[in-house]
Design brief:
CATH architecture of the largest domain: Orthogonal Bundle
Number of domains: 5
Strand order of the largest sheet: 2-3-1-9-10
Helix content: 40-55%
CATH class of the largest domain: Mainly Alpha
Mean pLDDT: 93
Shape: flat
Structural class: alpha+beta
């Protein structure tokens, strides 16, 4: 169609919050597309743009006006619309008036409920000038901006003051007023390099026009350019850049024309733990640290400037001067903290409240020490070292370095413990107690570190549930979701065969010294953890019914639970699975109906029908293998053997009547089915897999 052209919408404003920029861009794109589609306009393509000073969308294949709209209104049934003589009733006349036509102009429509009067109306589609103001206003109002502001004397509100508005359909300006601005074709280039107005002649030329004004409008283009510049600068000195993806996003949202520069600092600062230097550079200065081939920091960094300076040395020098006092502070903290042993800070823990009812950090450390002693045997730990790790695990929170850089908790504990002469395994455990720090992050490595990470999460989960502060909705101030998922990942991915209930009982026993109702919270904590396990497995592609099949038999060891789930998921792909699942569902129903007759042993002499004898013999032949496989955790092998029962099970339900009048015969057949169900239930309740 000749009237199909790109549609450009750009809102220019003061610098947007950098961490919110990608979300604002995506929300504007999705909402504009959705509202246009609701109006019958389907873009053939869409691009979203975002810089610190603008949000924009470019939608391809947009017609000059909305397609004509058809609407069908249903009125009264024909039987109620006319009397016996065929004269229209008041119902028919009223419906016709509401449609603006006479009764004769109404059509009839046959439905499965009878024949009805209907009115078909066709309305001409609205022009873009009529449609777009409401669409764009609604999309801007729906953006995820919790705090909005006013500026000047107007009543408009937005996340930042707005300064220009561009709305083009092809080369034509779509006239509208939004947020106190009148639309046009004038945009702005780089604040310093191209402050003059830029005319966008055609909507499709938007990105190229801005690039002439030294603005890379597309977020992804800027991000890729920054990454490439960083890597080029690093390689020039034989270095490797540490590119944190979240920092890369943030820096991309801070600049419109990125220019990478390499700066340097005094090599004496390399005596400070590099994690502290990296944290300072990334979090405070938004710099990219550099390391050598061995991963050791070098006295250089890369900064992304928003200007193409004619005096790059001045820009470089300014960034170096800003970094120097921050490094000097870190150096001072490092030197001062080492003057005091880590274990001497245990007194400080008594002054810091973990939670009012749960006591201080010293109280928590004592609870962790007892839990570590309990885990020493099952996890093969030295009890004395396990207890000491727990007593030291929160001491670094009292150091100056961690006070200044909270994200270094645990990391600095490792450095200070090694400085004090503690065993390396203990020092590593102090750091890795916080692993995984986020979803998908690295897990604790050695058993001592795994144990410390487990007991810390167990104590927190049990304690917070005991005082009734478990998460509700989106609120999770104690990060219990992360704690539960981390606990599960350690148990499952590090293959620790520990049962959940005894762990929670031990944790609750410690908490109960301060909160007597802690033991009563165990079922709630366990259910909460299992719900996290459900999400963990569903995220890996496990079907909900597979999880429910295993949950029905309630294994207490998360590792065992996951092994069963994976076996059932594999079993479900077998051709016998559906038939056996259906048979098990039928068995469960029969056993529920005959609950008072359960628990009897099978009497072989009472097996009269060949099909029930066939099932009994087949079951008896595989039972030892199935039981042995379940005992050693080979659930795949157990289900493979059970899959071989499909033929005798099918024959049984074809040839055998279970609920016969003869009580002895009925009881014997139920006992056979109960014995069969018990073999399956040793792995999972596969009746949950039945689709019928």
């Amino acid at each position: 169609m000749d009237d199909l052209h790109p549609l450009l919408f750009e809102l220019g404003l003061e610098e947007l919050p950098p961490k919110a920029l990608p979300a604002l861009r995506d929300a504007l794109r999705e909402d504009c597309v959705r509202r246009l589609q609701e109006a019958g306009i389907v873009p053939s393509g869409v691009q979203a743009f975002a810089t610190p000073r603008r949000l924009a969308v470019l939608l391809d294949g947009i017609p000059a006006r909305q397609p004509d709209q058809s609407e069908t209104r249903r009125g009264p049934a024909v039987a109620a619309a006319f009397d016996a003589t065929g004269t229209p009733t008041r119902a028919a006349e009223g419906f016709a008036r509401s449609c603006g036509v006479t009764v004769d102009a109404l059509a009839r429509e046959h439905t499965d409920k009878g024949e009805y009067l209907v009115h078909h109306e066709r309305r001409a589609g609205a022009a873009l000038e009529a449609l777009l103001p409401a669409i764009f206003a609604a999309s801007l109002a729906a953006l995820p901006t919790p705090k909005r502001m006013r500026w000047g004397a107007g009543e408009a509100e937005f996340v930042r003051p707005v300064h220009w508005l561009v709305v083009l359909h092809g080369a034509r300006v779509i006239e509208m007023e939004l947020l106190g601005l009148h639309s046009g074709r004038t945009t702005r280039g780089h604040r310093f390099h191209c402050p003059q107005a830029l005319e966008v002649t055609q909507a499709r030329d938007y990105a190229e026009t801005l690039e002439r004004g030294m603005v890379l409008a597309a977020f992804e283009t800027r991000r890729a350019a920054i990454r490439a510049q960083i890597q080029t600068q690093a390689a020039a000195n034989g270095d490797r850049a540490l590119i944190d993806e979240a920092l890369l996003d943030e820096v991309t949202a801070l600049v419109e024309w990125p220019v990478a520069l390499t700066g340097g600092f005094d090599s004496r600062f390399l005596e400070v733990p590099q994690e502290a230097l990296i944290s300072t550079m990334q979090d405070n200065q938004k710099y990219f640290p550099l390391v050598d081939a061995a991963g050791r920091m070098v006295p250089r960094f890369i900064v992304i400037s928003n200007i193409q300076s004619q005096e790059p040395e001045a820009v470089r020098g300014g960034n170096e001067r800003v970094l120097r006092p921050r490094f000097a502070d870190a150096e001072f903290f490092w030197e001062q903290d080492r003057k005091q042993r880590l274990d001497s800070r245990r007194d400080w823990l008594e002054t810091v409240v973990f939670e009012r009812r749960l006591g201080t950090l010293a109280d928590k450390s004592e609870r962790l020490a007892r839990l570590m002693e309990n885990l020493a045997g099952p996890m093969g730990l030295d009890p004395a070292m396990a207890r000491r790790a727990a007593l030291l695990c929160k001491c670094d929170l009292g150091t100056r370095m961690v006070f200044e850089f909270p994200e270094l908790q645990g990391t600095m504990a490792r450095y200070y413990a090694l400085h004090d002469g503690e065993p390396e395994a203990l020092a590593l455990a102090l750091e890795q107690q916080y692993w995984p720090r986020h979803a998908g992050a690295e897990l604790p490595e050695a058993p001592l570190a795994q144990a410390l990470a487990l007991v810390d999460r167990l104590d927190t989960l049990t304690g917070i549930f005991a005082i009734g502060k478990e998460p509700t909705g989106a609120r999770d101030p104690f990060a219990l979701r992360r704690a539960a998922l981390g606990l599960l990942r350690i148990l499952v991915e590090r293959e620790q065969p520990l049962a959940l209930t005894p762990l929670l009982e031990a944790a609750a026993a410690g908490v109960a010294e301060r909160v007597p109702e802690a033991t009563a919270a165990i079922p709630r904590v366990r259910a909460y953890i299992l719900e996290r396990l459900r999400g963990y497995l569903l995220d890996q592609g496990i079907a909900p019914e597979v999880f429910e099949a295993v949950a029905a038999v309630d294994p207490d060891r998360p590792l065992d639970f996951v092994q069963r789930v994976r076996a059932v998921q594999q079993f479900r792909q077998r051709p016998e699975a559906e038939a056996l699942a259906g048979a098990n569902k039928r068995i469960q129903n029969l056993l529920r109906r005959a609950d008072t007759e359960r628990g009897a042993a099978v009497v072989p002499e009472r097996l009269e029908v060949p099909a029930e004898q066939f099932l009994f013999e087949a079951l008896a032949s595989i039972e030892p293998r199935v039981d042995a496989a379940v005992q050693r955790g080979d659930y795949v092998g157990a289900l493979e053997d059970l899959a071989g029962l499909r033929a005798p099970v099918d024959a049984f339900f074809t040839d055998v009547m279970v609920m016969v009048d003869d009580a002895a015969l009925r009881s014997n057949r139920l006992a056979l089915l109960e014995r069969l169900a018990a073999r399956f239930d040793a792995v999972a309740d596969i009746s949950r897999l039945a689709t019928g």
